[in-house]
TrEMBL record:
Catalyzes the reversible cyclization of carbamoyl aspartate to dihydroorotate. GO terms for molecular function: allantoinase activity; dihydroorotase activity; zinc ion binding. Pathway: Pyrimidine metabolism; UMP biosynthesis via de novo pathway; (S)-dihydroorotate from bicarbonate: step 3/3. It is an enzyme of class 3 (hydrolase). This is Dihydroorotase. It catalyses: (S)-dihydroorotate + H2O = N-carbamoyl-L-aspartate + H(+). Keywords: Hydrolase, Metal-binding, Pyrimidine biosynthesis, Zinc. Its cofactor is Zn(2+). Its EC number is 3.5.2.3.
Length: 434
């Protein structure tokens, strides 16, 4: 079947038609308009399928909070066609058996491509390296290695992990948190933390690890990826490392682009996340860094948690927020509506660049004829208050419940297969995965 998307604003620019046939984008001029399925895209923006380099799908072991199947529904609803699944499952994704299980569950779920991330250390214990070669050579083709949730704190181990990943053509994604500087920390270290009687998480606990890792990546001749940059100091370290020619990339989460520590005044566990929500000056520095390319990508750090883990005293609540369905709206509000990024820039930071970091093929020529048909149609003029009906995963720990956000993902194609139609997530299609 051929699908014609008529009059779309491609990457927010010129209005033209796009055509999908046989899983790829084809020249609309060659399409028989009498037989094609036509989607009126007038007023809609066409973006490439979004790629999330940092998603927690919780399976195996955390199925009460999320499964691969429920997580990819949330992903599709948010405009994602590919998600990288973090390794902090139970058991940890440190063996071919686990990454292959996650990969297989992704194929069964359809809707989006699931790329398992492999652990750096056995059991995320930070003591000895996982067999990274076996993970890379498994059917899951691991290219990203991360102990996310935990920092690879041992510098010697991190150096060897970087060397090893480089030899495999992969990348280490570091959760930058000095464990000694953050003992018992539950929110940003600030006057507000003192006022609220909560233990602070100092910015230097992040920046110091990023500085160390950048120097290790330099001596290893390796690529380093920095997870969830949250402070102005880390931005400065990343900027200096890039100026020095070090191969590092960095991500920022939607929540760190929009929210501040002030929300913690409510003592609501929904606002507890690692790294913590920071101050206004950090939020502004993160936006600027994303606009000027110091920060390469937006990654959701979608971190579902069951209600019991969140509805407790703030100090005891689990760290993490769901974010797949709200990411694009938050980026529209924080970056597009502020004039910091145009839609082509959004496509770069949410699709092309994360795919490149994760070595996911098919995203390097967004919306060009011949590319796989990973396409999203967004209504930028829609505005809606986020409620639980908008969330498709098993958990509802979103910091945006009750908040109005712009934009609405209306239609998504994953490799030419329709996964979202009129805002509704389609039936999982086995074999639609690539
Ligand atoms: N971000 C979080 O607050 N939590 C993540 C772990 C992580 O990303 O560090 C989780 O797995 O719940
Ligand atoms: Zn993390
Ligand atoms: Zn994470």
């Amino acid at each position: 079947m051929t699908t014609l998307l008529q009059n779309a604003s491609v990457l927010g620019g010129e209005r033209r038609d796009l055509a999908i046939e046989g899983g790829v984008l084809v020249d609309p001029a060659t399409v028989d308009r009498a037989t094609a399925e036509v989607v009126d895209a007038t007023g809609l923006i066409a973006l490439p399928g979004l790629v999330d380099l940092h998603t927690h799908l919780r399976q195996p072991g955390g199925e009460q909070a999320e499964t691969v199947a429920s997580g990819v529904r949330a992903a599709a609803a948010g405009g994602y066609t590919c998600v990288f699944a973090m390794a902090n499952t139970n058991p940890v994704a440190d063996t071919p058996a686990v990454v292959e299980q996650v990969h297989r569950l992704g194929l069964q779920a359809g809707l989006a491509t699931v790329r398992p991330i492999g652990a750096v250390t056995v059991g995320l214990a930070g003591e000895r390296l996982a067999d990274m070669t076996m993970l890379a050579q498994s059917a899951a083709r691991v290219t990203v290695f991360s102990d996310d949730g935990k920092c690879v704190a041992d510098a010697e181990l991190m150096r060897r992990a970087l060397e090893h990943a480089a030899s495999l053509g992969g990348v280490v994604a570091q959760h930058a948190q000095d464990p000694h500087l953050t003992r018992g920390s539950v929110m940003h270290e600030s006057p507000l933390a003192a006022e609220l009687g909560l233990t602070g998480w100092p910015s230097v606990a992040e920046a110091s690890i990023v500085a160390r890792d950048a120097m290790l990546a330099e001596v290893a001749g390796a690529r380093l990826h920095v997870c969830h940059v949250s402070t102005v100091e880390t931005v400065e370290v990343v900027r200096a490392a890039k100026a020095r020619g070090i191969q590092l990339t960095a991500e920022v989460t939607p929540h760190h682009l929009l929210l501040t520590e002030e929300l913690v005044r409510s003592y609501d566990g929904r606002f507890k996340v690692n790294p913590p929500l920071r101050a206004e000056r950090d939020v502004l520095a993160l936006r600027e860094a994303l606009a000027d390319g110091t920060i390469d990508i937006v990654a959701t750090d979608h971190a579902p948690h069951a209600p019991e883990a969140k509805q407790t005293a703030f100090a005891d609540a689990a760290f993490g927020m769901v974010g797949l369905e709200t990411a694009l709206g938050v980026v529209q509000q924080a970056m597009v509506e502020t004039g910091l990024l145009d839609w082509a820039g959004v496509a770069r930071v949410m699709s092309t660049a994360p795919a490149a970091i994760g070595s996911e093929p098919g995203y390097d020529a967004p919306l060009e004829v011949g590319s796989p048909a990973h396409v999203v149609l967004v209504d930028p003029d829609a505005r809606s208050v986020i409620d639980v009906d908008r969330l498709h995963g098993r958990s509802t720990n979103s910091p945006f419940l009750g908040v109005e956000l712009p934009g609405r993902v209306l239609h998504v194609w994953h490799g030419g297969v329709r996964t979202v139609a009129d805002g509704r997530v389609g039936v999982a299609t086995e074999g639609a995965n690539r």
